[in-house]
Amino acid sequence: MVGPVGCQWKALFPLLLDTGMRLGKRSRSSAGGSGRSPGFVVIPDSKNSSARHVAISDRAYAGLLDLTDREPADSKVFRFSSWVAENAWRNEICITAQCPDLRIHDLRHEALSRMSARGTDLKTLMRQSGHKTVAVLMRYLNPTPAEQRSRLFPEDAIVEAKA
């Protein structure tokens, strides 16, 4: 994907994959209104009606800075609608990647599962994702079989590493 939409996806993809954010929240934000500070994005109007701080990776922060550098505070960070993003995802990105069934929202599941695999506690995951209940958060955490085994039998992983 080339052009302005491609440049925006270059910033949007790591933002979604690294943070577990929803597409809609990012596609409507403005350059000055997202409350960015190094390491965080403040979402003033989250889905559950309360503001929240979302920790972001250095690469996601750098992508945001690239898009908003020298932009007026009221300009949109991502200049395409959620519909345009979904269409580009389905008709260009997934075809190129040969992953026709991958949805943008799957990036949220992947991000939260990766955070969980790194040992992030439930309270921190809930804060990051904006979920109010553990039950809803659990829908997003999908450990791989290898992660499942290593968590249940960590002493076997030590023996396997020596073999």
Structure characteristics:
hpI Integrase, Chain A; 163 residues; two-stranded antiparallel ribbon; single chain; 9 helices; mainly alpha; 5% strand
Explain this structure to me?
This protein has 163 residues and is mainly alpha-helical. The chain has one domain: Intergrase catalytic core (hpI Integrase, Chain A, Orthogonal Bundle), CATH 1.10.443.10. Helix content is 56%, strand content 5%. The protein has 9 helices and 2 strands; from the N terminus they run H-H-E-E-H-H-H-H-H-H-H. The chain has helices at 3-19, 23-27, 58-68, 82-97, 105-117, 122-129, 134-138, 145-152, 154-162; strands spanning 40-43, 52-55. Strands 1-2 form a two-stranded antiparallel sheet. The longest helix has 17 residues, at 3-19.
In short:
The chain has 163 residues and is mainly alpha-helical. Helix content is 56%, strand content 5%. The protein is built from 9 helices and 2 strands, in the order ααββααααααα.
